[in-house]
Amino acid sequence: MPELAAGAITGLTRNPIILALLLNLILLVLGCIMDMAPIILIATPILLPIAVSIGLDPVQFGIMVVLNCGIGLLTPPVGAVLFIGSAVSKVPMERVVKATFPFYICMLITLLLITFVPAISLWLPGLIG
User: Fold this and answer.
1) From the centroid of its chain, how far is CA 115?
2) N or C: which end of the chain has fewer CB within 10 A?
3) Residue-wise pLDDT tens digits, 37-89
4) Alpha helix (H) ranges present in the chain?
5) Which residues contact 9 (CB under 8 A, 6 or more apart)?
6) Cα separations (Å) of 12 from 25, 42, 58, 62, 100?
7) What is the pTM of this model?
8) Do residues 19 and 13 touch, judged by C-beta distance below 8 A?
């Protein structure tokens, strides 16, 4: 089954940039509707071979997965962190979402930088050796 799903994704295009964006989109959508642990357990075996085939380092892909899942936890419709923040602060959900909007932009820019500039996520492992 993982090979079938990976074949369907890579069958859409051979462009590595579009595939990297597609991987991010899939992970963001999954992050919006699922918790982090199941996404890592289910999606990694399917998406990691695709990421490696387009030239992404496995460490870089792992950071992408965690960041996508983190963004998903802050994104409606599920947005578990938004519900917790709203309940703790006793502020309506709408105000919490509006207040976090600038941070969404920063997180998405960071995600794109991590995706397309490998040196950002790989410099520390490179120092260690």
Assistant:
1) 10
2) C
3) 999 999 999 999 999 989 999 999 999 999 999 998 888 877 888 888 889 99
4) 2-10, 16-33, 36-53, 58-73, 80-89, 93-116, 118-128
5) 19, 22, 23, 26, 47, 50
6) 14, 21, 22, 23, 34
7) 0.86
8) yes
